[in-house]
Amino acid sequence: MLLVMQTLALAQNNKKWNVGVTGGLGRDFFYRKYHGPRNEIPPGAIRFFNSLNSLKAGLSVERFIRPRLAIKSQLECSFLEMPNKVMFEISSIAWYPKNEKHYWGSFSIGARGYLKSAGPFKVFADIGVQGDYFLGLKRYPEGQLRRSYWEAEDYFPFVPSAYGGIGVRWKRFALAADYQFNIARTFAIDNPKIYNNPKHLKRSISRQGVSLKATFLLIKAGEQWY
Predict the structure, then answer these.
(1) What are the φ and ψ backbone dihedral angles of 44, each rounded to 5 degrees?
(2) Which of 36, 116, 164, 174 has CB atoms 3.0–4.6 Å from 169's, for a disulfide?
């Protein structure tokens, strides 16, 4: 909160800054790879799966460095509804399986360029990099009992990603579509040692995601920068 207050105070004194709150809806697509001989991949292993939906909320900050070109950073939380026990392959005898809820945090930095326009609608494009961090999940292992797990099982919780997007701004409102993808995979840590089974293959997961986001600017830069 202190960081947000300082950012808003600085932005109010400088017409080069945009500061806004963002909300969005999207979907994420995952690919799981097994690292080992094909004949040792578990029977019925699910290698491709996707979130049922992905809700996003965040705070974005832009600073113009020249007309129609800005540096943009964003702090964001994502709430994913996932098929029950697909992500971490944990079996259960739950008689009433419910979808898991996964929580991710991310911080991104990149560039935003605006097309020159004399009208009220300003078209822009984004490109940048971001770090994704797995915060935890909620699942229902016993009937309708909900439990929270603030861990990433045996997977590394941090993974670097990249993104690109396009959108349009009108006054204090902006609407944008973006695409994110993992630059690296999240690897499981030494599974044979953990499970005492040399055939329990090390595995990794990579993600791609698409989303539609709406932003409202709390602080808006001067029109001379667009």
Answers:
(1) 75, 15
(2) 174
Q: How many other CB atoms are there within 10 angstroms of residue 190's CB atom? A: 11
Distances (CA, A) of 69 to 72, 114, 126, 164, 175: 10, 6, 10, 15, 18
Give the contacts of 188 (CB within 8 A, at least 6 positions apart): 153, 154, 155, 202, 203, 204
45 burial (CB, 10 Å; 0-12 / 13-18 / 19+) is: exposed
pTM: 0.83
CA–CA separation, 87 vs 76, rounded Å?
21
Confidence of residue 73 (pLDDT cuts 50, 70, 90): very high
Largest CA distance in the chain: 66
Give the bridge partners for 148, in sequence order: 138
User: What pLDDT was estimated at residue 37?
Assistant: 79
